[in-house]
Amino acid sequence: MRPTPEAKPAERLEIGVLYGFRALMVLFVVNYHIWQQSWLPQYARLLGTVVDFDFFTRSGYLFVDGMMLLSGFLLYLPYARRKVEGTPVPGVKRFYLNRLIRIVPSYLFAVLAALLFFALPQGRYASSAAMGKDLLSHLTFTFTFFRETYLFTPLNGALWTVAVEMQFYLIFPLLARAAQKRPAATLSVMALLGWGYRALVYFTAADTAMLVNQMPAFLDVYALGMLGAAAYCRFGRAMERMDGRRRMLVEIASLMAFAGSVMVLLSLFRMQSAASAGGHEAIRLSQLRIRLPLAFTLLTCMLAAAHMPRALQWLLGNRLMRFLSAISFNLYIWHQFLAVEMARSWFPDTLHSDTDLQRAYTLLCLSVAVVAAMLATFGLEQPVTKLANTTIKKLGRKNDHEGPPSAKAEPAVDPLLVRPEKGRTGVD
Fold first, then answer.
1. Full-model pTM
2. Which helix (H) or strand (E) holds 89?
3. Is 287:201 a contact under the CB 8 Å cutoff?
């Protein structure tokens, strides 16, 4: 007999270490994009020894793949819990509504701000037709389909990941329902489609710039995240039946798996960094090759971290990590755009050769990006979300979830939407 949802411990409603994974992955991407503008040497002196982490920063964009993996994991987590425990999941309409409420306000503000305060005043468009196509494709999340609106847009190049996520959200309810009925077949088909797409690009495309990061290229990464959510829920049930000694052994094994996966991750980053010697096309081809092993390694790291000793889990789930996770969506949206504009407008050409100037620029970019993310999160994203959810409640929407009517509903979430409050993993 399955336990009732009310009997489920409150702490099981969240996976605290994932706040840290989300925050750190975004910060590593932020560091990479700022380094692209500053060329600040990436090394530090520790106890008289020089620690060179140039290879890590140079390949920091790979953590975008980790964001997609985490998205698949968290999106499917409520469905995996339903399979194991019988808890409800959001209906299709509510799923789409949740995504729009959380994503669109911050995204729309970023697009319009880039257009009105930068692109138009700077005369970045050759014609009004070019501006109209760029704006319309961004408003419909289709700008990744066109070369000029994807690779050459003045409306914030970092937004491509949001378009990919929104495209995946469109098909996710169908995939989630199919995965609950036939998990092996559904996830295998997703994996084959992802592999097949990347293989086709790898062996046939002369220029992969437009193709390497299209949504189909991540289907196996999303599938791996969904598989990880299912494994986490099933293993959680097994953990509940373990005695103290077995739990301790699991924690030790998890710590060893975490350390091992970090070492493998660093090796993959070294491989990707070495590929940069061959130019942009070699970098993209290497990215196509290592995408799956990278995602598998990151998933192993996440699952292992979730079962480490609690004292170590705290390092990834403390208040700082929760705060950074809360602002991470807007931090990701704004950091690169602001870094490019500040380098262009405020810093001389000697930026790339003046170490003191590089340090000042890096500190300024980080500070401005965090402040901008805080303002957008707490001044726009969260108030709009609260207002929207309050309005929905007043309208008396009672059939938004699929499952037992007596159970507490836990809507699906994704890494862009993780909330900082303890014990909360979705929207009401």
1. 0.90
2. strand 89-90
3. no
Give every CB contact of residue 394 below 8 A, 6+ residues apart in sequence. none
Please report, as a single letter, which amino acid is at residue 395.
L
Which residue, chain included where needed, has tokens 């004292």?
311
Q: Is 326 exposed, middle or buried (0-12, 13-18, 19+ CB in 10 A)?
A: buried
Q: Cα torsion at 183, 189, 190, 193 (round to 10°)?
A: 180
Instruction: Answer whether 179's CB lies under 8 Å from 223's CB.
Output: no
C-alpha 106/C-alpha 19 separation (Å) is 20
Q: Are 302 and 291 in contact (CB under 8 A)?
A: no
pLDDT mean values, one per 10 residues, the chain (428 residues): 42 81 98 96 87 94 97 95 85 92 96 97 96 97 97 95 97 96 96 98 96 98 97 88 89 97 98 94 97 98 96 96 97 97 93 94 98 97 92 71 51 40 36
Number of neighbouring beta carbons within 10 Å of residue 43:
12
The structure tokens listed for 292 are: 């799956």
C-beta pairs of 348-355 under 8 Å, 24+ apart in sequence: 351/37, 351/38, 351/39, 352/38, 352/39, 355/40, 355/41
Cα–Cα nearest to 236, from 76, 14, 417, 1: 14
